[in-house]
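Moderator note: this is an archived Q&A kept for reference. The question asked for a predicted structure of one protein chain; the sequence and the answer are reproduced below.
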Amino acid sequence: SHFDLRGLSQRRLHEIAVETSPRDAQAFLQRIVAQIQSKILFVDLPSYRNAFPEQHSAFLKLFQEIVSDRRSSLATNVVFEKRWTLNSLLNFKTVLNTPNIIVERAGYFKDKPAVLVAAGPSLDYEIDNLKYLRENGLAYIFSVGSAVNSLLASGIKPHAQCTYEPSENNQKKVFARITNEQITDIPLIFGSSVGFEVLQNYPGKHKLHMITSQDTISSYLLKIDDNIQLDGVNDAPSIAVVTLQMLYKLGFNPIILVGQNLSYGDDRLYANGIDYWKGARLDSKTVDGLIKIKGVEGNEVYTKLSFNRMRMAMESVIRSMEKVRVINTTRGGAHIEGTEFYYLDQMLAETFFSEQVVESSWHDIPVTNYDREYLKKRFHRFKRDYEELVPSLITVLEILNEINAWKEKGGHKQIDHCWPKLDRAFKKVTHNQIFKSVMHPMNRVATEALFAQIPLIRYDSDPIRKAEEVVGLFGRVVKGSLVDMQLIAPCIAELDEIVNQF
């Protein structure tokens, strides 16, 4: 049959997408899902299910994954959008006074083996093997997240503890033992947007940093010199994925995963020695919310959606790594595409680790010499824009109030006269560096919703509905930013002192 598309109601039609390559569906779905702020109704053509069952099933699965990822991303942003930026502001002094391990040691550990130890239940099987590696200096051992507590309970101190978790719970749970026992000989490698409480309380002698993609403060203010690019790590669903990026940049090869279950092993999610996760067990009540995925030993294993996202993020990083072996030794864990599976005791028996490689003084690195003049110039603009942002935000708010008033009176023509004023006023806000580096990240959910909706509401023919949507979307961003400007005032004052001293 044939139908003339001009017969469709174009005012209500948003988009027609035609798939010409496998990548088109993913790009289309990611774009659409990012724009929609409410529930999504999926309507398919029944005949397609019969005519193209494989393609239909693949599209539906992709759609569900993208919606799930978007929901997870929004939830994460809602929880951490303030903390990421506040942590970056509060940690800036420590960043200036510690070595940037990626800058100072890029490629330094070329072809040295590194063991990345996570807190999965299979870690319990590898304690003796890790002790042997540690005592004989056969590989560098990097602990991530709660795994350090299992290692300490077994008398093993990793060569470094890595962290990036932005929440206050990071200090209360993961680092409580190190802090309470005042353990000073485990170097800390921290992402620059990590929960500030960790850095304030960490008793260790050596702290080293890596700039994270969530740290919009350091990425704007810091530079090494004109010849060295400021490299860092991308944020990820787990510290293991972030640490994997770091190990690759440092030159380690092979990288050996231990305790990276990303699934239930022995009906547990975590290894022994992690007291605050004792309740995380697999039983008939929890199975309903889980999914089955391929295991390292060819079987199927249960996992939860958040762990599955971590697995996919790790696979994405591995795909980007060239000429590096990633060996997964995790018994009973999830299969991670791009890795080879070996038992760790098998590797030891086959003398895979043939010589001592660990330098005891590997962490004795000078403080990174960031460009002082560059910092001074950038902060000068930062401070100037800080002083200008509140008046600019108030101007936008006044225009929004005017639009709202005319909306109540039904003044359609007067509303139309407000749009150019709003465009000019908000353009001034978006060009402000404090808004770009601080306010936008601290209000990313509201700001990204606004930017996604602007193209859709710009040409709305109903002036009252358009006014209502504009006032709501812009108002959330402006009011949220005004509140946060008061919140960061002490941080900016402290930053001023730090820059002047530096």
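Archived answer notes: The first helix runs from residue 22 to 35.
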